[in-house]
Here is the input.
Amino acid sequence: MLRVDKKTKIELLRLMERSRLFEEKIVSVYGKQDMKTPVHLYIGQEAVAAGVCAHLKRADYIFSTHRNHGHYLSKGADMASLVAELYGRQTGCSKGKGGSMHFVDASFGCMGTTAIVGGCIPLAVGAALAAKVKKESRISVAFFGDGAADEGVLQESLNFAALHKLPVVFVCENNYYATNSHQAARHARENIAKRGQAFGIHSFRHDGNNVEAVYIAARKAVNRARRGLGPTLLEFTTYRWKGHVGPDCDHLKGCRPQAELESWQKFCPIEAYKKIILKEHILEQSGIDSLCAGISAEIEAAWAKALSAPYPQAEELYKDVYR
Here is the structure.
């Protein structure tokens, strides 16, 4: 059985906390209305991004969705440039023109996100094809939700990736909701991972709130891709705590049962992992507190840097725009 060493356990906790505290900061300031972009928060799903991205090299590609903050932070992209993008500042990773849904940082392999449901999937496949043709060692990862599984492009991409044995990992974060439509109302069969088996793709379903389970499954998938053995489809079951968009909770609008949310919150991936960290004496509580304090200091510094940056000039409107 694959094991997770002490150093990696601490890093997994750090990555999850970094995503959670970053987004909790967004929740705390969003009401001021000076962050004009819509935000789709990742709170509750942090174990997936942490467990997958912990295996990726800087040159590896990731393609994400509108719910992208956790992926980009876990990949190592600069936090201050992400904050600046949220505020539409010139120093943002997309020069203040993309907002929350369109982060790009090619220097970290973060090749862009799209608000088109399922749109990131063929992009990741195309990048994997390019890497194979150019004989590069990098791999490509597509993060998408159960809503994207409704799109035909998933099946097309799985087929093409399998046909050409491309170095791509498909990561489905099944949080059971496409906007406010539950999976049970959309899918005749719940298990999305089985769809990959129709194309001969190694496909597995795991608990997406168990960061070590994610990490071990992702390690196998990433290693297969690097060895030229083709794609893998990983489905991780999880749950988002906040609304489809914005800092509020869906149950406040009658879109989801409050009891359902509270039930999933009992399985918080971060709190569950803290208990393991303490039980195994990986860190004491003081060590966890110190780790979180360091992340909080990073967040405050990133916010201060971003808010001191200028807005783009009017003459920049059509720069970097391709028509």
Summary: The chain has a mean pLDDT of 94.
